[in-house]
Amino acid sequence: xxxxxxxxxxxxxxxxxxxxxxxxxxxxxxxxxxxxxxxxxxxxxxxxxxxxxxxxxxxxxxxxxxxxxxxxxxxxxxxxxxxxxxxxxxxxxxxxxxxxxxxxxxxxxxxxxxxxxxxxxxxxxxxxxxxxxxxxxxxxxxxxxxxxxxxxxxxxxxxxxxxxxxxxxxxxxxxxxxxxxxxxxxxxxxxxxxxxxxxxxxxxxxxxxxxxxxxxxxxxxxxxxxxxxxxxxxxxxxxxxxxxxxxxxxxxxxxxxxxxxxx
Length: 263
Fold this sequence. Notes:
The protein has helices at residues 3-16, 23-28, 39-52, 76-80, 92-104, 109-116, 122-130, 153-158, 205-210, 221-233, 235-262; strands at 58-63, 66-71, 134-139, 147-151, 202-204, 218-220. It has eleven helices and six strands. The chain has three domains: 3-80, Arc Repressor Mutant, subunit A (Orthogonal Bundle), CATH 1.10.10.10; 92-216, Arc Repressor Mutant, subunit A, CATH 1.10.10; 222-263.
């Protein structure tokens, strides 16, 4: 097949699809044709297409799952104005969690908590699983058999990566804000967004202390109820101690009065 015709076909296909296509998938499109291009010819065409798009507002990008045509990052601001919905916002806690999974996979939830110093919200894990950014790779051979988490191809695709080797080294990372320009972190650690909803029965340690939610260690409403029950159970003892203290105070006051009279 003529290379110029092949490039036009591939361009049309990549423009029409809403997901990435691998070389194998592109090759399967020509199964019924008499002139079937080889995989090497398809790769050559894709390479030339990438060169052809230099200087344009879009590019041919190769990611973990295959190839796709996409708007260049520097023009995303204007293209994004075509849609009214706001871009997804991710909390620092979610990004710290996915970063640890990406750099230390396979890793358990307990190991993530040990590094971060706080518990990992179930909503964070749920969000990452629902977005297909992480998956369960297996279970660690320790008591409880905790799940081992790792990243997926969808995670690499989202961040325009072909492999984990393209992740910046830890030495290059000074702040999570610099990992990806599309990430919009709330500097003041605002309440979790729709991407990381807070369950109705979930509060935080800071929320109990300060009267508002934050991204500290998550505790459940059951724990708060247990604390209230504890207070209720020992309320009687507190009152007894208070009465005993009052009696001792009265006796000391009486002793002071008698001593003053003797003087």
